[in-house]
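I am writing to request your help with a piece of structural work I have in hand. What I wish to show you is a protein chain and, alongside it, a tokenised description of its three-dimensional fold. Could you please explain, in whatever detail you think fit, how the structure tokens follow from the sequence? You will find the record immediately after this paragraph.
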Amino acid sequence: MRKQVLILAGGLGTRLRPLTEKCPKPMVPVCGEPFLHWQILDLKEQGYTDIILLVSYLGEQVREHFGDGSKWGVRIDYVFEQTPLGTGGAIVNAVEKLKDDLEDEFMILNGDSFLRAPLDDLAGFFDEGRFDAVVTTYDNSVKTPVPNNLQVKNQMVVKYQKGAGLEQGYTCVDSGIYVVKKSIFTSHEIASRPVPLQLEEVLHPLMAIRTYGAVAVDSRFYDIGTPQRLEEFENFVKAEQAAGRLHGQEPKGAL
């Protein structure tokens, strides 16, 4: 697959109010930079420089800040949604608007979560051709705010239940990075669904036809869904900076 990444950056961020009353959630500051800044730095570091931001609420602020991405050594395009479409609906909208500019296979990141995953390994697993979609998973060995919600067998997601937990036999949690085939968003059945349409409504039916793969990632993920989680991610960034593993400067190097 080509290294094309869609970032779902249209969330309202209602649980972060009043921070998000005048600021879109992906632009909430973390250590002096917008949250998206840290995602883009990680993508750039791993060679994923073709980025498409799917924006909605106060999305112009995102475009004004990041522009075409050249300052960060990446290329950024934007797809706007005029009304909230949900995470799955946002991707259907992007598929319809981008047409052939969107590759047949691409990666999806949530615009409010951060996971340091080996993206080439994830893409390589997808390229083996066993699945129509692949998700990163985490075993909650360092506990996150999200309980385990997936059962996985032979690198295949077989069951999902929100909030289930380990005690019910769910051994890992969806940690928020996906590689998918574009074709799963272009079927008449999906394209004709009412919105808002969530991404899990598109991906979870793949379990029934055994085409939803899973890649376990050792690193825990962070999200900024609540003030407490935002503070936790900020502490993570500070620790990474202190250890010399992350800095706040735009990486050098043009496309």
